[in-house]
Amino acid sequence: MEQKSVRETVVSNWTDEVLPSLSGLVAIPALSPAFDSDWAKSGHLAAAVEHVRSWIAAREIPGATLEVVELEGRSPLLVVDVPATSESAEKGTVLLYGHLDKQPPVGGWSEGLDPWTPVIRDGRLYGRGAVDDGYSGYAATTAIEAVRAAGGEHSRAVVLLETGEESGSPDLPAYVEHLKEKLGTVSLVVCLDAGGTDYKRLWLTTSLRGMLHVNVTVKVLESAQHSGMASGIVASSFRVLRALIDRIENVETGEIKLAELSVDIPENRVDEARGVVEIAPGAAKTLFPVVGRPVSDDDLELLLNNSWRPTLSVIGAEGFPLPAEAGNVLRDSTTLTLSFRLPPTADAKAAMEAVRHALTTDVPYDASVELSGFQAENGWNAPDTAPWLDKALHHVSGEVFGEPHKSYGMGGSIPFMGLLGEKYPEAQFLVTGACGPDSNIHVPDEWLNIDFAQRVTEAVAHILDAHARS
């Protein structure tokens, strides 16, 4: 393809077409179903799907068909099917994945910013869902248009945009099964829901951690009692829960004690982490606004902790009054939401059973323990890179970014990648994206680096062409 033509198409589309529509998408409060139990009634997810569907339809890509698929009781899915260019009909399907659902807005946005008010400032688009992951459908569509405008080739391309990723993609297995005949043989998966540790180069995510969530309730009383009267006779529900968690996690180091949640780290992934440390020594310690110091002084250990070792975060609590309203009361129960990140190759179901056993066996004081809301998803580890893709990556690294690309394991989870890895074991995977170290996904002031997103789009266009010619 002609390099200049690809770049011109990408930049002009982003400036004139993508940013106005993406800004409109930011304004839609399309909370993921886990954060909006009335999502079907509120209609925000449907509105987001229709907003993007209308924009893509207006592109009038020759032969493209668009379909909104909504199985009973499941959040909607947008499927865009673009036929192959004439030379590339036998190369299989390229599946380009993204999502339109969003995390909650959360408070604390900076002055002049708001989760549902798009603001373009200093080359950034601010607003919830801008980088995670609203831009992806626009980038995928623009990459296809750029290939065609530059006289390139692409195989059949299916853009799939779901609305449940931030809820763990519970509906995707049913949709993939429903669409299996339509998808055909998938030979390349492009996921744009990732990123890297700087905005200088193309970052490839080669592994994603699995996840395990559970709500744990410990109950010690039928009703709350005066703490002075009951303490010393009745155990604290918080102390009992703390003791149960101590069976799972080393409180001093954060190390997870259950063998089912750990794996041996592949040496090639250790080498990748070393490569990241070499280009950015010390960066792992400054990625986040830490008060105090990180859990280790060793950069390599920090990256491996974040990508290949299990961790536990307590992300929710119930049963506690606000400090200003806390009386002298021994509470009847305590509920905590435990969120585990699992190594990419760990068995999530085996991990779930190990956690269940640890929390419910030989409970101190025979207190009542109730587990609810279990969610277990496997991670993903990328297959070896095919020669054609390796060559294409070196090309776009030089021509588009001017810096060598880097690979690393991402600490987050994209459940769909594990599902696709199992279903299409022969496929190649390009998991990348526009997210940077300070993009503020899931937290206040989320923003998209517009120039970087354009270059990621340009890179995808070249890789689509390379795939078709491989």
TrEMBL record:
Pfam families: M20_dimer, Peptidase_M20. GO terms for molecular function: metal ion binding; peptidase activity. InterPro entries: Cyt/Met_Dipeptidase, Peptidase_M20, Peptidase_M20_dimer. Keywords: Hydrolase, Metal-binding, Protease. The keyword Ribosomal protein does not apply. It comes from the Bacteria. GO terms for biological process: proteolysis. SUPFAM superfamilies: Zn-dependent exopeptidases. Signal peptide: none annotated. The keyword Magnesium does not apply. PANTHER family: BETA-ALA-HIS DIPEPTIDASE (PTHR43270), CARNOSINE DIPEPTIDASE 2, ISOFORM A (PTHR43270:SF4). This is Acetylornithine deacetylase/succinyl-diaminopimelate desuccinylase-like protein. It comes from Amycolatopsis umgeniensis. The lineage of its organism: Bacteria, Bacillati, Actinomycetota, Actinomycetes, Pseudonocardiales.
